[in-house]
């Protein structure tokens, strides 16, 4: 299943990506169990686009009703969490607890697997929400909503694909291991989708956003490799959240 490039990409990959990364009430659909789920990783940015559109629609409706920018930003972030089952936030909390709370690889992986949340996880969740909320509030107050939210949602999920491809699995079980590692074709399409989103939605500043997302993902991947020797589902969730934070901060600095 590792780095499988042998099968063509299919439209059903989008369905699989939505099933893996969202909690949308999708109708039941047959999936070929022999087809590695990692082949659907190219569609992760499209899953981000879908949840981003729903969240932005709710935010736009709230703006139309006259609610303040801070409320709209909180509504969008809460909507994104609900639509994804807060899986990325959960991953960041578990990764923070494990990477900074354990004294060796075995203990770090045990902590990340534990369903309880520790001090590092709580701090990561609060800080992550506060940082995203403050930057998004500033963007909305400046008159921009759809473009930054959609672009960030797509690019942050492309960053996940990059780490999935680059890092080995840290453990021999779990969602990340079951999904597999995407090959270069899947990574290439995911990156192409992220590039198109950045340029069409953000223009020239999109290049800076792509760069900051790549640097953030590389830094997080380096920490994961040093701390636990690879990636897990929690690490991928943390990648999505960390790139989202840095991209929103960069956008607020560039566009306001």
From TrEMBL:
EC annotation from Swiss-Prot or TrEMBL: 2.7.8.26
Enzyme's top EC category: transferase
Predominant subcellular localization, coarse grouping: membrane
Presence of keyword Cell membrane: yes
GO molecular function ontology, one term from the record: cobalamin 5'-phosphate synthase activity
Cofactor(s) the protein needs: Mg(2+)
Subcellular location: Cell membrane
Topology relative to the membrane: Multi-pass membrane protein
Described function: Joins adenosylcobinamide-GDP and alpha-ribazole to generate adenosylcobalamin (Ado-cobalamin). Also synthesizes adenosylcobalamin 5'-phosphate from adenosylcobinamide-GDP and alpha-ribazole 5'-phosphate.
Catalytic activity, as annotated: alpha-ribazole 5'-phosphate + adenosylcob(III)inamide-GDP = adenosylcob(III)alamin 5'-phosphate + GMP + H(+); alpha-ribazole + adenosylcob(III)inamide-GDP = adenosylcob(III)alamin + GMP + H(+)
UniProt-listed HAMAP family: CobS (MF_00719)
Alphabetized Pfam families for the sequence: CobS
Entry's family note: Belongs to the CobS family.
Residues passing through the membrane, by range: 39-63, 69-87, 117-139, 145-163, 184-202, 208-226
Pathway the protein contributes to: Cofactor biosynthesis; adenosylcobalamin biosynthesis; adenosylcobalamin from cob(II)yrinate a,c-diamide: step 7/7
Record-given protein name: Adenosylcobinamide-GDP ribazoletransferase
Domain of life: Bacteria
Keyword annotations from UniProtKB, A to Z: Cell membrane, Cobalamin biosynthesis, Magnesium, Membrane, Transferase, Transmembrane, Transmembrane helix
Gene Ontology process terms (BP): cobalamin biosynthetic process
A single GO cellular-component term on record: plasma membrane
